[in-house]
């Protein structure tokens, strides 16, 4: 397992933003065999509200990320002209090319000297794994500060006629990290099993199976009527659970040994908010005391927002805390654990996106890019 330790990187400020459209879990009732089964799952999984992008508002992860950075700028009195790095973590990029970080740099008006890159496909591990990258840049002296933007529109990854659709929602978090001369320990442990990839992927949409006419109208259904398309997520829940139960105790034990901490030494242990059952399971197998384990209230309020899941827990449950431990598992292929000191962090909580930017309709957007093609190619 990989061990990473840093001493001079400080998380300075954080804010999370969700889109304005709020829906509740009752829309998933039709995919359960009975009302009784729905109510049972609602309780066990902690189903509640979701904030999602819609076809009408045309919002993307890029728009949510922009809104999060602008909110952080206003609340923390942040001078964007002094930003040296911008890292975007997303599994739902607005563009395949160029990277969303480049486009976001332009929209924000960050200096041309800003180091920008995007990390994709990390799912719920987007925050912790990206944080390793950002901390490495700052600790090495390459950057004095960096904006980390964790943003996903996960509700768009599954068919609306699929029960799993109602476990996912959308958010963006903007996090400012800076170099500090004081010792400010930050530690991580990771465990990856990429050989399991066939159990957790969206088969189509990349270069492996491009979206072409032969799959556009192909829809598969299970006996309960849940629909699936080749570009939707394909996830084997039992394999995910097996990976989690094997990996999480190991990485948490190694993190405790690496940091020479016990659970008594930390204020809270936060787990990515896949659902309430997942949080309880991870807490039990890693032997976290119940009074130190984050609750599932963030999932119930906002659902699973992939790379924004852990930052949402920080914004929703962890104001005013100090030493904290974190665990996350990304699509059953990677598990990560980290120690982060939140003391002194400007934590601005979670806010609903105040306004939707005026955008071209889908038809207008398509026509715009067709015209750009003809302009470029004469």
From TrEMBL:
Keyword Manganese recorded: no
Boundaries of every Beta-ketoacyl-[acyl-carrier-protein] synthase III N-terminal domain copy: 123-194
One Pfam family this sequence matches: ACP_syn_III_C
Top-level lineage group: Bacteria
Species: Candidatus Anaerobiospirillum pullicola
GO biological process: fatty acid biosynthetic process; secondary metabolite biosynthetic process
Protein keywords: Acyltransferase, Transferase
UniProt domain Beta-ketoacyl-[acyl-carrier-protein] synthase III C-terminal: residue ranges: 257-337
Name used for this protein in its record: Uncharacterized protein
MF term (GO), any: 3-oxoacyl-[acyl-carrier-protein] synthase activity
């Amino acid at each position: 397992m990989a061990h990473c330790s840093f001493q001079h990187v400080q998380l300075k400020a954080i804010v999370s933003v969700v889109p304005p459209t709020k829906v509740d879990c009752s829309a998933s009732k039709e995919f359960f065999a009975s009302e009784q089964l729905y109510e049972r799952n609602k309780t066990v999984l902690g189903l509640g509200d979701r904030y999602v992008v819609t076809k009408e508002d045309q919002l993307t992860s890029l728009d949510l990320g922009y809104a999060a950075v602008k909110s952080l700028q206003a609340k923390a009195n942040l001078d964007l002209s002094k930003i040296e790095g911008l890292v975007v973590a997303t599994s739902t990029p607005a563009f395949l090319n160029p990277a969303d970080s480049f486009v976001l740099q332009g929209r924000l008006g960050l200096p041309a000297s800003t180091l920008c890159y995007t990390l994709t496909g990390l799912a719920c591990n987007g925050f912790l794994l990206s944080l390793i990258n950002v901390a490495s840049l700052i600790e090495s002296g390459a950057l004095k500060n960096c904006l980390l933007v964790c943003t996903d529109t996960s509700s768009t990854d599954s068919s609306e006629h699929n029960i799993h659709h109602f476990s996912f929602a959308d958010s963006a978090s903007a996090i400012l990290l800076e170099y500090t001369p004081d010792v400010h320990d930050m530690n991580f442990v990771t465990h990856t099993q990429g050989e399991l990839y066939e159990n957790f992927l969206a088969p189509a949409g990349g270069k492996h199976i491009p979206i072409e006419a032969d799959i556009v109208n192909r829809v598969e259904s299970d006996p309960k009527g849940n629909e699936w398309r080749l570009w939707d997520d394909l996830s084997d829940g039992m394999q995910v659970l097996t990976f989690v139960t094997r990996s999480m105790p190991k990485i948490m034990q190694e993190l405790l040994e690496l940091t020479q901490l016990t659970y008594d030494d930390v204020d809270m242990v936060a787990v990515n908010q896949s659902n309430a059952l997942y949080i309880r399971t991870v807490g039990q197998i890693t032997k976290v005391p119940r009074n130190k384990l984050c609750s599932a209230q963030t999932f119930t309020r906002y659902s699973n927002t992939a790379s924004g899941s852990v930052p949402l827990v920080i914004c929703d449950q962890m104001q005013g805390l100090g030493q904290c431990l974190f665990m996350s598992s990304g699509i059953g292929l990677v598990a990560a654990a980290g120690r982060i000191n939140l003391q002194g962090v400007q934590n601005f909580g979670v806010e609903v996106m105040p306004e939707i930017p005026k955008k071209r309709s889908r038809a207008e957007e398509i026509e715009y890019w067709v015209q750009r093609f003809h302009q470029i190619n004469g």
